[in-house]
Write a structure and sequence with these properties.
The complex is a heterodimer. Chain A is an alpha+beta fold. Chain A contains ten helices and 17 strands. In chain B, a hairpin with a 6-residue loop joins strand 9 and strand 10. Classes of the chains: A alpha+beta, B alpha/beta. The interface between A and B is large, with 62 and 79 residues. Strand 10 of chain A pairs antiparallel with strand 5 of chain B, so a sheet runs across the interface.
Chain lengths: 431, 215
């Protein structure tokens, strides 16, 4: 048997709605999808039911009747009341599941009786058939198809096709999946994650392939590594852009897990690929060049490995009166956004900090700064501006305790001098 | 048959390079893209201010630039004052480790697509800088060739030497203060920009204005 479809449809309506009814119980509908996923990955949600492809299950379960039996068992276990039909034609499976209660297994070429009302024939034609003594599909099948088509038009061929199990419905997966997963249990525990890269690459290829099959891309992959001590090491890799580049994902996973390896031996790998809409690239012909997002992210991760995770990122200003009112956002990547309002191109005097600040000896005469000496340079102060008070954090005890001056030494060098309590420092140089 | 000489004339090569390579114009400065540019000068010579000015031009155009900050001395407030779009800037703090800074620069250039890479090696003892092999700079130059990335190296003294496509030396002329008595503010810094490579005799005078946060 080449193709085999199973359809689960809502059972006949009862006077009182009961739990487990596909028409009233949302949990039952969700359970139905979960159940279908155990048998197939090609699933189509139809009105009051579900259609799925069970081709190939004869190797694992057996005959179509046995497959229908398994589905019925699973339905009972979930306490869902529904009709089941298994047929070689998708439309036939839908027709019988919607028209017959219980389990119906349609063997190829063997016709089973159905009332004519289920075929979607208009009422006038049905009345004519009744007058002629045609009550069900078996009666209608006895009438030559050519004559029926000649009398009721080519549209009637759809009805005859339905009776002859030649329906044209094509199973179209339409479930809104939001992730695909892949699991692999290792034969023996592995302590070095790098040894699993080939296995991981294989799994990654599979889930990305499945994601592409659903027409999506991905910007998040979750990795759960079950460990030998019964714990799980979980990693979630989120990007700011969707990508399906397997080599890129693999490198990134390797870098991230390499940064924070699991504490003990790995026994199982689980990968979950979350769906995201595909990236739309619409760059202008004259837009500025910028690194590819994948390349930028990998580069940043490589550099983080060298200089530390907190030392690479985008600078951000802090809206406080602090000596160094800025921070580094290591979670952020440069956006490459064009500025609409452009500022003046004239250079402004910039400061470069000394880390750590240089301790200084300062000579003061009659309240004026006279001479400055550090380990690296010394000189007479010829001009200075200040005092600027810093540190406005009222919630700490260090309130306005730092004072700063801009000083010019005799060799025309400009420095920022700071006094904290009674200690003097050169915090930076104007350059 | 004289015109069929295998060896091209230097003037011909210069002319050829002028038309095949792209340049970035910032004010009256023309910088070569896909090459190494070196800014040298002592403290308060204005090299950081001018570099930030170049960065502002590029980041405002939407180009992604990188600052490889060897001594963690980069001041984002000064960058903002110069008009740098911080969102387009990748800041790499190297904690004074020369090797980390050079490796990071290597990775950034490998990534391709950066508008400018600023390698700031100022305020580092000469002894450590002397340990950088000259081959590194040639390696960078080869990597950048044909790309749109501009590598700017700022240092207190010349490091890149002959590997630099352009080399500028900054020299402080004077600092101008405004105000009287004890109430003085730094107004501007006047510097001379000497072009060493290609050699230009007359220095370029530049004035760098000071701006305070509350202004």
């Amino acid at each position: 048997m080449n193709k085999l479809y199973a359809c689960i449809a809502a059972a006949e309506e009862e006077e009182e709605e009961q739990p487990g009814s596909l028409r009233s119980d949302e949990a039952a509908v969700a359970g139905l999808v979960e159940l279908a996923q155990r048998f197939s990955h090609r699933i189509e949600a139809i009105v009051d039911g579900i259609l799925f492809d069970v081709s190939g299950l004869h190797n694992r379960i057996g005959t179509p009747a046995q497959i229908a039996g398994k589905i019925s068992e699973a339905l009972r276990a979930k306490n869902i009341r529904a009709n089941i039909a298994v047929a070689a034609n998708a439309q036939t499976a839908i027709l019988y599941a919607q028209s017959r209660s219980g389990i119906t297994v349609i063997e190829e070429g063997i016709h089973q009786r159905l009332p004519l009302e289920t075929l979607g024939i208009d009422q006038d034609t049905l009345n004519v058939f009744r007058t002629l003594g045609l009550e069900d599909t078996v009666d209608l099948k006895r009438v030559p198809e050519r004559e029926l088509v000649a009398r009721y038009g080519p549209e009637f061929r759809k009805v005859t096709d339905l009776i002859n199990q030649n329906g044209v419905h094509v199973l179209t997966p339409n479930l809104k999946e939001n992730h695909v997963s892949w699991n692999y249990d290792l034969d023996f525990p592995v302590d070095d994650f790098e040894r699993l890269i080939f296995i991981l690459g294989h799994g990654l290829g599979k889930i990305l392939e499945e994601t592409a099959y659903f027409g999506f891309s991905s910007e998040q992959i979750d990795i759960a590594l079950k460990l030998d001590d019964k714990t799980t090491a979980e990693y979630s890799i989120k990007l700011s852009f969707p990508t399906m580049d397997k080599a890129f994902w693999l490198k990134l996973i390797n870098l991230r897990i390499g940064n924070n390896p699991p504490p003990c031996e790995i026994v199982s790998i689980n990968l979950v690929c979350r769906f995201a809409r595909q990236r739309a690239i619409a760059r202008g012909l004259f837009s500025a060049t910028r690194p590819e997002p994948e390349s930028l992210l990998l580069t940043v991760d490589k550099i983080k490995n060298i200089v530390g995770a907190g030392n690479v990122g985008v600078p951000v200003l802090v809206d406080q009166r602090l000596p160094e009112a800025f921070a580094l956002d290591s979670e952020k990547l440069p956006a490459g956004r064009e500025q609409k309002e452009r500022s003046e191109p004239r250079p402004v005097l910039a400061l470069t900090y000394f880390h750590p600040p240089l301790p200084a000896d300062v000579s003061i005469f009659k309240g004026r700064l006279m001479y400055l000496k550090t380990r690296h340079f010394a000189g007479k102060v010829i001009e200075y501006g200040g005092t600027w008070k810093e540190s406005s954090q009222w919630w700490t005890r260090r309130l306005w305790e730092r004072m700063e001056w801009d000083v010019e030494l005799e060799d025309r060098r400009l420095y920022r001098l700071a006094m904290n309590k009674s200690d003097w420092f050169i915090t930076g140089v104007y350059d | 048959m004289a015109h069929l000489s295998v060896v091209k004339k230097l003037s011909y090569l210069h002319e050829e390079q002028k038309h095949t390579r792209s340049y970035l114009e910032v004010g009256d400065l023309t910088l070569l893209r896909g090459g190494v540019t070196e800014f040298t000068g002592a403290h308060s010579a204005g090299k950081t201010s001018l570099t930030l000015n170049i960065l502002s031009t590029l980041t405002q155009d939407g180009e992604v630039c990188a600052v490889i900050d060897l001594n963690d001395g980069f001041d984002p407030c000064s960058a903002t004052a110069n008009g740098v779009v911080l969102d387009n800037l990748l800041w790499i703090k190297c904690g004074g480790k020369v090797e980390s800074a050079l490796t990071a620069a290597d990775y950034v250039m490998q990534a391709k697509g950066f508008g400018m890479v600023w390698l700031n090696v100022g305020n580092i003892p000469h002894k450590e800088l002397n340990m950088i092999p000259a081959s590194y700079w040639y390696r960078f130059r080869t990597k950048l060739k044909g790309s749109q990335t501009l590598l700017v190296v700022t240092a207190n003294r010349s490091l890149v030497s002959s590997a630099a496509d352009q080399s500028f030396f900054f020299d402080t002329y004077k600092a101008v203060w405004k105000g009287t008595g004890r109430f003085k503010l730094l107004d501007e810094l006047q510097v001379n920009l000497n072009t060493r490579k290609p050699f230009v005799v007359k220095p370029n005078f530049k004035s760098i204005g000071a701006r305070y946060a509350d202004e």
